[in-house]
Amino acid sequence: MATRRELAVFASLDGAFVPAGLLNLTEDGPQLNASEFAYGTRYIDRPGAVEIDPVSLSLKNKEAIRARKIFPENSLPFFGGIRDAAPDAWGRRVIEAKLKVPINSLSESSYLLEAGSERVGALDVRERIEGQPKEGCVPLSDLQYLMEAAERIEAGLPVPAHLEAIFDGGSALGGARPKASVRDERGVLWLAKFSSRGERLDVPEIEAATLRLAKLCGMTVPEVSTLAVGERRVMLIRRFDRYWDRPGELPEPGKLFESTMPCKGLIEKRLAFASGLTLLACDETDARNKSYGELAEAVQKYCHVDVVRDNKKELFMRMIYNIFVTNDDDHLRNHAFLWDPRLKGWRLSPLYDVMPRPSVASNRTLFLGIGPQGRSANLDNAIGWREKFGLNEAAALELIAQIWREVREWKVHFESFGVPPHSIAQAETAFRHIADISSPQLRARLP
After folding, report:
1. What is the DSSP string of 154-220?
2. What is the DSSP letter of 70?
3. Alpha-carbon distance 353 to 92, whole Å?
4. Distance in angstroms (rounded) separating the CA atoms of residues 87 and 176
5. How far apart are CA 39 and CA 51, in angstroms?
């Protein structure tokens, strides 16, 4: 029997949560049937108000949405911007372990409420307007306990009391891999990503090195490192939806993603987050039919005019890089956008979740469509849609050449990052030589 539940949605503005509106969900057990949202009038009138969802809950026409119930675009059952604040696969497993219930047995409202206030982005969801935030991260020094707890959750085993920190650090997170939010001794928030059970690849080392290589290629990448915990490695990636600044001040132009550090007089602020899934207003089941070209069109439509050109260029670079390193986990949740408080608009987030997949196949595909040949992972296909990214042929070829100059030396770079030889050997068949993914005609035109 369907039930209706009302929840309060909060947004973090200048480091503090304020009520943004009311969310109504119609649910039948674990099935979400419909949702509607109404912004609070006081929130709409705030000078720094952030859009809950750039597609369905835009604040561009404030009078049109004042005191009005809004429904998701494309007849979807959920708002993408609020779905992004909900836990995904891993976070749901953690919540289910905490509540001792079967997999995927809870209502969407239950997952939203159990996620805590350290969820990705700048939103929080509570049972009522008077509710208080629920912290959700643990000290970096507790990594050993978090790893042990994650292993038990993956194995379907109960989590003993001394390992329950995972319920604070892991409940809000997405993706299938085990992970947790941790704070170091300075107060900086990191995402700790662990190896999965029975995994053959040294994923933490390889993923961290691949992100660092992307930075050498010219892409925007958050700070990453690996850390030894006993005999295993953990990858740490700095949470790019958090930064430190003075109360009432805005980040300097071009410095939003720099690694600002906690110090006297600064407070932690949050950046609103929207996935590629949200900007394309589609369901997970339809995501495989989408393309990088459509993401580029979303950048043109929803991102601030000052960043559109650079964001489309970087999106093209990421697509090319994914072809070179065989990252076929490039689905829409692994592309994201952040609200820039200075611009008062959206922009492409830093790069994340780039993991090479070793393969012996000569013809490979990515998750998203690349060009006229669909998802076929080759450079001729990619350059066929260059105009969707605002690039002429010369500019597109220069970017391909720029990325190839670094990727061709990937082993040297991995060694300089401290990746052990056995991990480099594991990743070798993921990395493509340009001759294997392009025609002689294209290579002849490279600068």
Report:
1. HTTPPPPGGGTTHHHHSTT--SSS-EEEEE-TT--EEEEEPPPTT--S-HHHHHHHHHHHHHHTT--
2. B
3. 19
4. 11
5. 10
d(CA 440, CA 271): 44
Q: Where are the alpha helices (DSSP H) in 45-106?
A: 62-65, 80-83, 89-99
Give the residue carrying structure tokens 């500019």: 395
What's at 10, amino acid-wise? F
Both tokens of 235, joined, read 């990858």
d(CA 288, CA 400): 25
Per DSSP, what are the bridge partners of residue 390? none
The closest alpha carbon to 407, from 337, 341, 318, 286, belongs to 318
User: What span, in angstroms and rounded, lies between the C-alpha atoms of 420 and 228?
Assistant: 13
Q: Taking the chain (447 residues) in consecutive chunks of 10 residues, what is each chunk's mean pLDDT?
A: 94 96 97 97 93 95 89 96 95 96 96 93 94 84 94 94 92 90 94 87 95 98 94 93 91 75 89 98 94 98 97 98 98 97 94 97 97 98 98 98 98 97 97 98 97
**Parallel, antiparallel, or unpaired: how do β-strands 138-139 and 179-183 relate?**
parallel
Residue with tokens 């489309």: 312
What is the CA 13 to chain-centroid distance, rounded?
20
Tokens of 245: 């600044």
Q: Quick one: residue 178, left, alpha or beta (phi over 0 = left, psi -120 to 50 = alpha)? A: beta
Coil/strand/helix, residue 357: coil
Domains of the chain, each with CATH number or no CATH:
3-126 (no CATH), 272-445 (1.10.1070)
User: 């394309």: which residue's tokens?
Assistant: 280
- The answer to whether 407 touches 324, Cβ cutoff 8 Å, is yes
Q: Looking at the whole model, is its pTM more than 0.85?
A: yes
In angstroms, rounded to a whole number, what is the distance separating the alpha carbons of residues 83 and 80?
5
Q: CA-CA distance, 170 to 95, in Å (whole number)? A: 8
Judging by DSSP bridges, how do beta strands 3-13 and 123-126 pair with one another?
antiparallel
